[in-house]
């Protein structure tokens, strides 16, 4: 089976965006924010939004199941206050749950968290618990920079984040470390902010001792790990200079990378540098890069093609396509085993 660990509802029906626009028009007025009616979206609108997009591409490209979360760039935790973020997050997560209910064989849910720059991460614990226990979700997206490109939060290894990690461990769910849109003009969202954040998170994990405190905590760094695989020698060398343990024991029991790298040489490098047990198949479709590569005639984000074309053994490919995802997402494994 082919499990795509990284998909967002980028094609959600318009009433969702209308709800967000209503929020944006009343950011300073809590009473007005609280009075915005929930978006009305029919099952048919949901089907229509997926049939010509994610479901069509799943079928065409040969994936079976997508681990599906709200649109990452729209999380925009920097907009409004904690109340705005909480209401937006609940609406987005509830919509993912409806997608999963309509297509339980094609999608499984991962939540966004109601983070906000001025709120402690502990304030997101309740929504994580709701999504896992009540909505049946199997993981969360954790934004290391709710300020949207200004990096006002402490590093992910800081104790301020620990309440979320304690709940993740208790629920046995991983997090994908995933920023949202950028309100800093220096950083293009998907071209710079995303890749910066992936790289930044990995360096924070090297500097800290997070996985000593949480030996079973699991983090997925998306977009192929940002610059990390390409600069693996730098990170090994920095860890050595800083008297950190070797990376396999210091971080690789807990940190995983997806395959959202949009060309064959990039994937080949990822597969060569990062142990196969630490790589999960992902495409992030329909996502950041939607075009066709004129050099290959194929979609850039058709990442299954690159894994298929790699020199990995069939057993290693199976780990990347299925086995590793079932290990990193035990609640997914339980669902699939129970089918
Ligand atoms: Zn993403």
Note down, in words, how this protein is organized:
This protein has 339 residues and is α/β, with parallel strands linked by helices. The chain has one domain (3-337): TIM Barrel. The chain has 15 helices and ten strands. It has helices at residues 14-24, 30-35, 43-51, 54-61, 82-102, 125-134, 162-171, 189-207, 210-213, 232-241, 247-250, 264-273, 303-309, 314-328, 330-337, and strands at 3-9, 65-70, 107-109, 140-142, 175-177, 219-221, 255-258, 279-280, 292-293, 298-299. A five-stranded parallel β-sheet has the order 4-5-6-7-8. A three-stranded parallel β-sheet has the order 1-2-3. Helix 12 links the parallel strand 7 and strand 8. Helix 1 runs antiparallel to helix 5 (82-102) and helix 14 (314-328) packs across helix 15. The two termini are 13 Å apart. The mean pLDDT is 97. Zinc ion binds at residues 6, 8, 72, 178, 222, 284.
């Amino acid at each position: 089976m082919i499990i795509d660990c990284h998909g967002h509802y980028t094609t959600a029906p318009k009433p969702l965006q209308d709800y967000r626009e209503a929020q944006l028009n009343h950011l300073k007025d809590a009473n007005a924010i609280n009075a915005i009616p929930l978006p009305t979206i029919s099952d048919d609108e949901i089907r229509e939004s997926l049939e010509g997009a994610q479901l069509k591409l799943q079928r065409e490209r040969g994936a079976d199941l997508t681990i599906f979360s709200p649109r990452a760039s729209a999380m925009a935790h920097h907009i409004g206050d904690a109340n705005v973020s909480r209401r937006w997050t609940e609406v987005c997560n509830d919509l993912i749950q409806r997608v999963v209910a309509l297509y339980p064989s094609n999608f499984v849910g991962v939540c966004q968290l109601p983070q906000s720059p001025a709120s402690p991460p502990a304030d997101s614990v309740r929504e994580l618990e709701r999504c896992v226990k009540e909505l049946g979700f199997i993981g969360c997206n954790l934004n290391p920079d709710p300020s949207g490109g200004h990096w006002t939060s402490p590093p992910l290894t800081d104790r301020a984040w620990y309440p979320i990690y304690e709940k993740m461990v208790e629920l046995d769910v991983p997090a994908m470390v995933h920023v949202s849109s950028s309100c800093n003009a220096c950083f293009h969202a998907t071209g710079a902010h995303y890749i910066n954040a992936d790289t930044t998170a990995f360096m924070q994990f090297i500097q800290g001792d997070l996985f000593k405190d949480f030996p079973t905590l699991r983090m997925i760094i998306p977009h192929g790990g940002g610059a990390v695989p390409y600069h693996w020698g730098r990170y090994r060398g920095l860890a050595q200079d800083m008297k950190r343990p070797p990376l396999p024991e210091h971080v690789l029991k807990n940190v995983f990378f997806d395959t959202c790298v949009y060309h064959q040489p990039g994937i080949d490098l990822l597969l060569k540098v990062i142990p196969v047990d630490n790589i999960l198949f992902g495409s992030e479709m329909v996502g950041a890069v939607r075009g066709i590569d004129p050099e290959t005639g194929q979609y850039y984000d058709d990442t299954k093609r690159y894994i298929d074309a790699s020199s990995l053994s069939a057993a290693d490919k199976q780990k990347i396509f299925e086995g590793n995802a079932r290990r990193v997402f035990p609640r997914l494994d339980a669902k699939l085993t129970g089918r």
